[in-house]
Amino acid sequence: MHLLLLFLLFINGCVNAASIVADGYGPTNMDARRNALGTLSESLKVEVKSFTTSTTDQNGLLYAKQVSESSSELPLLGTKFSYIDLGNEQMCTVTLDSDRALVLYQRHIARLGSEINQLENTQLQQKKSADKRYQTLKQLYEKLDQIDDYITVALLLGSPQLPELKTTLEQTTNLLRNLESKAPTLAIGASQLVKDLPEGGYFIEPARAHGSRQITQLGRLLRDELEKKLPNSQRAQAEYRLSGSYELLEHAISVTYRAIDRQGKTLATRQVQLSASAYKGVAFKPTDLDYDKLLNEGYIVDNKFRAALSTNFGNEALAFRQGEVVRILVKLNSPGFFYVVAHDRSNKFSYLLDINEAMGNDRFVVSVDPSQVNRWISLSPDGFEVTPPFGTEDLQLVATRKYPALPQTRLDKNGYYRVVAKSPKQAVLLTRGMKPKRKNESAEPESAEATITYTSSSK
After folding, report:
1. Could you write out the DSSP letters of every residue in 327-355?
2. Please, are residues 189 and 222 in contact by the beta-carbon 8 Å criterion?
3. Distance (Å, rounded) from C-alpha 150 to C-alpha 37?
4. CA Rg, the chain, in Å?
5. Is the whole model's pTM more than 0.70, yes or no?
6. Potential cystine with 217: which of 10, 154, 283, 298 (Cβ 3.0-4.6 Å)?
7. What's the CA gap between 69 and 247, in Å, rounded?
């Protein structure tokens, strides 16, 4: 039986998710609907992270790792929409009803489970034909990759009946690697990754190493090669998003890309191995994974008070080129306050973003009133232009219900309000601080966090 399914069968009785509701706004019903679906997807990911990061079982930690790395988008089924005309804009409310939606997810899981077991039987009968077996294994890999996403959502909605699978994603991956020839260049590897993908415009993300949100030189170069071979679109207009990750092997690198539609459904999964010659002289190892874990997983999110941080390029796999204009966007689901801390990994210091024309601490803090709830707030209407020095930087959003206590800062000669700390790692701990221990589940959380990581370069 699938290791993930064994774990889910053990814990699925512990989850009791009610219906999830999200609002979106826009000049037309279609825009409002798209924004509402985006908010709903964010809510699902928050629910997943909150549940998995609070699980202490060893298998639970493995499951959390899989979700955080592979489920950047989750498939949405059984949603219902309602609209309100606000005069100057439209409001859309989307509801994911647990009882109604769980039936649909159950059907998809059962269908995929049946297809997986049929493909496994077929590939066992094809051992003498390497070519046919390879094609079957690729289909099997796609189905196994898809079923985990549906199971993830179904788990949050109730207690799904899960099929007993005859193989696992890890086993299938290893079989594929044994049959695949390694790509000697990034261009050849990119050609294999785009083979037989659905037709349409793509927003292509740089591939990230497992366990890291940092974009390396390898991730950027792979994206550049993929952009030469696929029709490109901006994120908002793209029919599909191509999301990638890679894993370091003994003498190769295994790259996986997923074609994801606007509803979060994975339509195709492609994998290729790069030989050492393909990445010779290219930086591919992310730096400081312990810091990544502290920044992104050290704080359990509570869905009752939620903060979101994004850009006009999205909030994942962010790699900017010199001259691009980036808008930083913040959204809270309740009235409150927020400030943003930037952690410069390359130069090893942290600073508060000066985002208000005000005196004292007010220059760092934004107040969100009821009229701004569930709406994206831009920190600068004209955006921020990507300029030197280049490198990797993390933005940490800290939201509070009451006016926040800010970390101590000092103004340096370059105009940065530096957090008084020895390193970004210590600055994360200072801004996070001590969180109140809640005596019961109904207690209202006083703060929430969100983070994004981006890498900038001259090209």
Report:
1. -EEEEESSSEEEEEEEEETTTTEEEE---
2. yes
3. 17
4. 22
5. yes
6. 283
7. 11
